[in-house]
User: Which sequence fits this backbone?
């Protein structure tokens, strides 16, 4: 992308980027991939790259060695991203003294809420942080223990922290079971 493999910033500092890969992403042409169709993926990929050529000048496109059109995330990939995000968040809360496990129902709830049709799994981290944080906040406000099993409250469609004595369905002891 850069002829001399260097970049100079506005404050006149120069950085050597030789040995680095520069990756740029865009949603240009993504609407082609999101429409339900029976066309082969290679045809859709050509349509996406055609959109790219309409948007950018040829001299810029020529500087990129590779152009790749990504397929939309499969449900298995979405679940894997949710699993990784949830593990990170639970570890972060565990360091702060909140020992939480996640019921299978709560995991599915977070997967449904964290995946967006056009944005993919980008909202997953914010979704996990919001719902787990809200459950901890609600438990603390109610004077209950902020540790326990995260379950879905079907009454108000949110997560809540409960103990195994609350009669929940068999809780998932480790998130790793969802892989």
Assistant:
């Amino acid at each position: 992308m850069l002829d001399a493999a260097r970049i100079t910033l506005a404050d006149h500092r120069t950085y050597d980027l030789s040995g680095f890969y520069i990756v740029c992403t865009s949603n240009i042409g993504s609407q082609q991939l999101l429409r339900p169709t029976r066309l082969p993926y290679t045809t859709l990929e050509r349509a996406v790259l055609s959109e790219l050529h309409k948007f950018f000048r040829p001299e810029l496109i020529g500087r990129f060695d590779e152009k790749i059109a990504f397929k939309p995330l499969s449900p298995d990939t979405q679940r894997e991203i949710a699993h990784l995000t949830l593990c990170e968040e639970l570890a972060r809360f565990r360091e702060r003294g909140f020992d939480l496990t996640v019921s299978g129902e709560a995991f599915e709830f977070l997967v449904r809420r964290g995946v967006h049709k056009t944005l993919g799994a980008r909202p997953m981290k914010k979704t996990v942080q919001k719902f787990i944080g809200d459950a901890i906040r609600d438990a603390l406000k109610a004077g209950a223990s902020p540790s326990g099993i995260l379950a879905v409250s079907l009454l108000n469609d949110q997560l809540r922290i409960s103990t195994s004595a609350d009669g929940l369905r068999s809780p998932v002891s480790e998130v790793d079971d969802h892989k």
